Amino acid sequence: MGDVCNGTSTRAMLQSVQTNRPSNPLCGHPFEIDGIKNLELLCDETEKKQEIPTGISTAGEKTHNCTLLPLTIYSTSCGGGASLAQSYACQ
Predict the structure, then answer these.
(1) Residue 86 · residue 1 · CB < 8 Å
(2) Strand, coil or helix: 79
(3) DSSP state for residue 70 in the 8-state scheme
(4) Alpha-carbon torsion (26, 19, 86, 46), positive or negative
(5) Start-to-end Cα distance in the chain
(6) H or E element: which one contains 5?
(7) Which pLDDT value is given to residue 65?
(8) Nearest of 21, 22, 47 to residue 13 by alpha carbon
(9) What CA–CA distance (Å, rounded) separates 75 from 55?
(10) What number is the average pLDDT over the span 38-59?
């Protein structure tokens, strides 16, 4: 997570929350990582307060599952009062 904070990560951060509003890509918004295109977050549609990822689809077919990470993973300070926390892992 430290690499994402300082801009040296080769992976993309999928979603950030600032003032409780997630940024794109949200569920239903196509994105790409490391040259892989046509990816889309799949979310639990029964949860109305926030989008909870359940998987990732590639070109319309579910290819990855997502899981909630335990609260034992703490946020990383990015400086200037900003921090980064990973809530879900998808593989």
Answers:
(1) yes
(2) strand
(3) P
(4) negative
(5) 17
(6) helix 2-5
(7) 95
(8) 22
(9) 22
(10) 83
Quote the tokens at residue 85: 């926390």
What is the domain partition of the chain in residue ranges? 2-90
Sheet holding 53-58, edge to edge: 31-33, 36-43, 53-58, 61-68, 88-90
Among 51, 73, 66, smallest CA distance to 1 is for: 73
Q: Residue 82 corresponds to which tokens in the numbers above? A: 């900003």
Q: What's the pTM value of the predicted model, to 2 decimals?
A: 0.65
Helix, strand or coil for residue 21?
strand
Record the tokens describing residue 7, joined without a space.
């801009």
How many other CB atoms sit within 10 Å of the CB of residue 3? 11
Tokens of 9: 């990560």
pLDDT, position 55: 92
Identity of the residue numbered 51: E
